[in-house]
Amino acid sequence: MRILIYGAGAVGGFLGGILTTAGADVTLVARGAHYDAMAGRGLILEGKTSGRPDPIRVKVCRPGEEKPPYDFIVVGLKSHQIAGAAAHMASLLAKDGMILLGQNGLPYWYFEKLDSPLRGSRLTSVDPDGTLARTIPIDAVIGGVINKPCDLVEPGRIRLADQASDRLAIGELDNRITPRLKEIAFVIEPTGWPVLITDNIRLLKWRKQLSNAVLNPLAAVTQASHRQIAEFPATRRFAKVMMEEVLAVAASVGVTPDTTPDQMLDDVVKRVGIPSSTLQDVRAGRTLELDALTNSVIDVGRLTGVPTPNLEIVSACAGLLNQRITDDGVAFAPAAAKKA
Fold this sequence. Notes:
By secondary structure, this protein is α/β, with parallel strands linked by helices. The chain folds into two domains: about 200 residues, NAD(P)-binding Rossmann-like Domain (Rossmann fold); about 120 residues, N-(1-d-carboxylethyl)-l-norvaline Dehydrogenase, domain 2 (Orthogonal Bundle). It has twelve helices and eleven strands. The radius of gyration is 19 Å and the shape is globular. The relative contact order is 0.12.
């Protein structure tokens, strides 16, 4: 199997690195200083369990330098970055090739291949003009949910956190268990990263969404980790209210995640304190992934008539922060306060 990691940032770089050490035929696509570091020194994975002691000599190329066709493309881009690269990625696929979309948030394909009155509905927050639906072959798409906290701390160096929940979940959009899912698991499991094949990928999407839709935008506007939000009484209460809205929207499309807000927040308190991807973006001055994380839930609520007032308030605040980042070209990073 020829594998391409398109967007080898933190998660994509981690997967590309461990696949390389497991002997897979994998190419990582990166650009700028991150490409230079990996092409020159190699990729460094730092982590007590999932890290590697030495730089990994990965096969890396810049966008446009790929050598197709590829049997399996793992898209490591953020959800709002996919449309700009969709046509190019589709052109790299082998006949009957697969493309794994494991981005956080609800995906553009949510209502595809689904036995529901809403089948074919479009989430305008994540695919406003239908580019993704038109460009990426729907039969090639594999749904994914990624659990692996990691942080691109500098070009070519990724810091990993090891948790009991670490895994990659994969599923077909029509919920079938197919041979190609088993083929993906067969390739990835030798790396040591567990793979769960599921017959309900949307359920797992909502379970992770319960955290991401709420805690990621709160982290952006408070400059706090998920754990700090869960530990501070006032933000914990507000997060619970927002999570109840997420659960109500999920229920409106027939999904009941197997957790409660209190269970989710209690679990967050036990986690390591690596900043969320959204908070990392705030501090680096990068566009925030708000549409897939929070606005997609609001979209589904509007389709099904479920109100989401608190999600909309936090989305508005984080949205203004995102506008400051994108329009003014600024980053918001911590600075030491001067003591009187």
